[in-house]
């Protein structure tokens, strides 16, 4: 699945650091930490007319990632919300919109890794684009397990939502080369971690399972699915899952803000059923409830 450019995004305005700029003029310096070392944190947000899905959880994760990386001058939630509101208003967006919210460590006085070279505070970017759900959630996606491992905490804690995405990008390249939609990443023990850009769930014998968040992003859509299961008395467990268990599941689905809930219909050439009644129930439960998770910016 290759995303295409939406003509509605041709003339969008983007918030960078201190205000809004037309798309072609929205830039960071070559001295910015994101250019120099991928030294930035980010969130993907989805906008519905009712508001932004789980906004507070996303802003908390952005703040926690920035604190772990010892950023200074981190904008408050109120300041970030104001920048988001300005951006959405400027673009007339209130639906079918995805926001890439990035906070970089900011500009350096000279090139180098040392964060002490960052003397002008962090830099906030609000990139809002017209972007409906990226996958076809009826036909589902095909995935390939890749050789690239997802980080466990001894390397780089996957709980930090940072811009050092190269291991996930390498996994995606492996999937692309094989003509599949996403790369499945294992952890350092060879248990399933997640797809290169979304979390994984498995349905088996009337129960739902998802890997522990040891070596995957603790996704916010993942936590919504877990919460919905608990509220609806659907048995859900976090546990170590092997590839063999996934191949033999009654259903597998991926979760993320970009695509919401997407059936996985093939893993390494093995067909995965997508008609399981519990999986269908879960997908319906999610789409019926997701707008109740929207929060307004006011
Ligand atoms: C590696 C990875 N896994 C999972 C997700 C899904 O997370 P969320 O549900 O918070 O969008 C993302 C989204 O950014 C991601 O980058």
TrEMBL record:
<keyword id="KW-0663">Pyridoxal phosphate</keyword>
<dbReference type="GO" id="GO:0046394">
    <property type="term" value="P:carboxylic acid biosynthetic process"/>
</dbReference>
<comment type="similarity">
    <text>Belongs to the class-IV pyridoxal-phosphate-dependent aminotransferase family.</text>
</comment>
<dbReference type="InterPro" id="IPR050571">
    <property type="entry name" value="Class-IV_PLP-Dep_Aminotrnsfr"/>
</dbReference>
<dbReference type="Pfam" id="PF01063">
    <property type="entry name" value="Aminotran_4"/>
</dbReference>
<keyword id="KW-0032">Aminotransferase</keyword>
<keyword id="KW-0808">Transferase</keyword>
<dbReference type="GO" id="GO:0004084">
    <property type="term" value="F:branched-chain-amino-acid transaminase activity"/>
</dbReference>
<protein>
    <recommendedName>
        <fullName>branched-chain-amino-acid transaminase</fullName>
        <ecNumber>2.6.1.42</ecNumber>
    </recommendedName>
</protein>
<dbReference type="GO" id="GO:0008652">
    <property type="term" value="P:amino acid biosynthetic process"/>
</dbReference>
<dbReference type="InterPro" id="IPR043132">
    <property type="entry name" value="BCAT-like_C"/>
</dbReference>
<comment type="pathway">
    <text>Amino-acid biosynthesis; L-leucine biosynthesis; L-leucine from 3-methyl-2-oxobutanoate: step 4/4.</text>
</comment>
<dbReference type="InterPro" id="IPR043131">
    <property type="entry name" value="BCAT-like_N"/>
</dbReference>
<dbReference type="InterPro" id="IPR036038">
    <property type="entry name" value="Aminotransferase-like"/>
</dbReference>
<dbReference type="InterPro" id="IPR001544">
    <property type="entry name" value="Aminotrans_IV"/>
</dbReference>
<comment type="pathway">
    <text>Amino-acid biosynthesis; L-valine biosynthesis; L-valine from pyruvate: step 4/4.</text>
</comment>
């Amino acid at each position: 699945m290759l995303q295409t450019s939406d003509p509605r995004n041709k003339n969008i305005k983007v918030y960078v650091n201190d205000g809004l700029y037309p798309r072609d003029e929205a830039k960071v310096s070559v001295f910015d930490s994101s250019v120099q070392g991928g030294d930035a944190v980010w969130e993907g947000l989805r906008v519905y007319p009712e508001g932004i899905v789980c906004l507070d959880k996303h802003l908390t994760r952005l703040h926690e990632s920035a604190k772990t990386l010892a950023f200074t001058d981190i904008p408050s939630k109120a300041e970030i919300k104001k920048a988001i509101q300005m951006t959405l208003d400027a673009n007339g967006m209130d639906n079918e919109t995805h926001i890439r919210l990035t906070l970089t460590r900011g500009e350096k006085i000279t090139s180098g890794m040392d964060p002490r070279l960052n003397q002008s505070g962090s830099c906030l970017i609000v990139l809002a684009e017209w972007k409906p759900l990226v996958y076809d959630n009826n036909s589902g996606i095909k995935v390939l397990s890749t050789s690239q491992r997802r980080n466990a905490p001894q390397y780089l804690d996957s709980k930090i939502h940072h811009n050092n995405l190269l291991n996930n990008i390498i996994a995606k390249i492996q999937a692309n080369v094989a003509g599949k939609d996403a790369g499945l990443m294992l952890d350092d023990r060879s248990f399933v971690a997640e797809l290169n850009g979304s979390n994984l769930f498995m349905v088996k014998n009337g129960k739902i399972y998802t890997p522990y968040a040891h070596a995957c992003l603790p996704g916010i859509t993942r936590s919504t699915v877990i919460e919905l299961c608990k509220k609806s008395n659907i048995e859900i467990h976090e546990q170590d899952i092997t590839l063999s268990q996934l191949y033999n599941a009654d259903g597998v689905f991926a979760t993320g803000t970009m695509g919401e809930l997407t059936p996985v219909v093939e893993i390494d050439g093995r067909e995965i059923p997508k008609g399981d009644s519990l999986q269908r129930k879960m997908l319906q439960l999610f789409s019926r409830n997701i707008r109740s998770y929207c929060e307004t910016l006011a």
